[in-house]
Every structure is written in C-alpha cells, then in structure tokens.
Write a structure and sequence with these properties.
By secondary structure, this protein is of the alpha/beta class. It has a domain at 107-239: NADP-dependent oxidoreductase domain (TIM Barrel), CATH 3.20.20.100. The protein has helices at 30-42, 56-65, 87-101, 107-114, 135-144, 163-172, 176-186, 198-206, 214-221, 233-236, and strands spanning 7-9, 15-17, 21-22, 46-48, 74-76, 123-127, 147-151, 190-192. The strands form three sheets. A three-stranded parallel β-sheet has the order 3-4-5, with helices on one face. Strand 3 (21-22), helix 1 and strand 4 form a beta-alpha-beta unit. The longest helix has 15 residues, at 87-101. GO terms for molecular function: oxidoreductase activity.
Length: 239
C-alpha cells in the first residue's frame, strides 16, 4: 500500500513533512545509519536529529547514500551549549534556532518572546499525545500560525496498554502506536515517532493511512491527564 504523507508550509516558503523519523537515543554508527536509510527507502522525507544525539554524521551519510535528492529531504537539528562552542556563539545559535523552531516552548514562553521577537517561531516542538494535549499551548500556537511538532507521540510506550487505545486499535485493525501517530496527524501536528526497527519504522509510516472517526477522536480527547513521559521544558525552563 502506498503512503502519502502530507506537508505543511513554513513561513520561509519551504514545506515540512508531517511525519518524521526521530533519532533520539539511536546509537551512533550502524544503528542510526541503517534507521535513516531504511526510513528514506520506505518513504520518509523528514529526519529529526541533534548534535546532542551524536548521530548527525550518520544521518548525513545515510541521506547521501540513499540516492534521494537532498532537496526532497527535510532535516531538523537542534543546538546545545555543552558541545564546546564559545558562549556568544552558543547564545546566538540558540536564539536563532528558537526563533525558527520554538523548541520546547509553552504559551507563557511564547508570550514573553512575542514582546521582542523579530521573526516569529515557525515550529514549536513539544511533547504531545492523547494523555498530554497541552490545549492552551496548542490554541496559542494555532492562533499565531505556529506549527506544532509532537515529540514522544507514543508517550515512550508507557500507555500502550490503555484500554481506549487498545479498543480503537482493534476497531481499525491497527497497532496502538499507529493510533497514537494517527491522532497526532488528525490534530494537525507533525508527528515525530522514533524507532530503529524496520517493522516499527514502516508501521509508523503506515499510520498516515489510518483515519480516526469523530467518536474515536472524542474518546482519545478524554484521555488528557498532563502525563509527561519524559521531561517537561514548559514547566521547568524559563525564557
């Protein structure tokens, strides 16, 4: 079955695919390289990495070896100050990156930034899934025309046995992970699931073909409980 992944238009005029392969915790070397190469061959055109992940070189090598035009592939990376840059370069890089991406920013952070920003953030990458809907942040970003990107859309696998997810997965003849990815896409988010297994990478991509009913979306909407599967930059980090 062919898979069509929609894209969203950025203020820059570039398009960002709505489904990405996350590279967090993908071991540098063969594991990261093979995951990216597999994803690209399956149809992914968006890879999310970071200097902190220590696999950017493997990502780049896989992209070059894939035979796919670089123009077709969207790559997201992030900057962290622990990598030996000078203080001023770090500050400037982080400011510029945050203006473009709004990484880990909630409504309060964005309201503060709105007083001084010269370039509105294009994308806000935060943890989002049915148990962490962040309605205030989502509404604010939507009102501002800021695209939301959901990291940990599978809640790090900690909610796979939720009865509602299992019920909907059975109704759709899908996996629980596919239901979660489908929810992110139905909400208009960019979904950022991570995996190094070919079967999971393909399954997450196939979730693009899953369509949730209004009733199923309502059931998933009732799961919100501010469940943080990892860390919470919105509550614990200041601008």
């Amino acid at each position: 079955m062919s898979v069509f992944v929609q894209s969203k238009l950025l203020p820059s005029g570039h398009s960002i695919p709505s489904l990405a392969l996350g590279m967090f915790q993908s071991s540098p070397g063969a594991e990261a390289y093979n995951a990216v190469l597999t994803a690209l061959k399956l149809g992914y055109r968006h890879i999310d990495t970071a200097t902190f992940y220590e696999n950017e070189g493997d990502v780049g090598r896989a992209i070059r070896d894939s035979g796919i035009s670089r123009k077709e592939i969207f790559v997201t990376s992030k900057y962290f100050e622990m990598h030996g840059w000078s203080y001023h370069r770090v500050v400037n890089s982080v400011r510029e990156s945050n203006r473009e991406l709004g990484l880990g920013f909630g409504k309060g952070h964005l309201l503060k930034l709105a007083k001084t920003w010269r370039v509105k953030p294009a994308v806000n990458q935060v943890e989002l899934h049915p148990w962490l809907a962040r309605r205030d942040t989502v509404k604010f970003c939507e009102d501002q025309g800021i695209i939301l990107e959901a990291y940990s859309p599978l809640a790090q696998g900690k909610k796979m046995d939720d009865p509602v997810i299992m019920e909907i997965a059975k109704e759709l003849n899908a996996t629980q992970a596919q239901v979660m990815v489908a929810w992110s896409l139905a909400k208009g988010f960019i979904a950022l699931p991570k995996s190094v297994r070919e079967s999971h990478i393909k399954s997450n991509l196939d979730a693009s073909n899953q369509k949730l009913s209004v009733n199923q979306m309502m059931k998933l909407g009732n799961l919100d409980e501010y469940f943080i599967s990892g860390w919470d930059p919105i509550r614990h980090h200041n601008v």
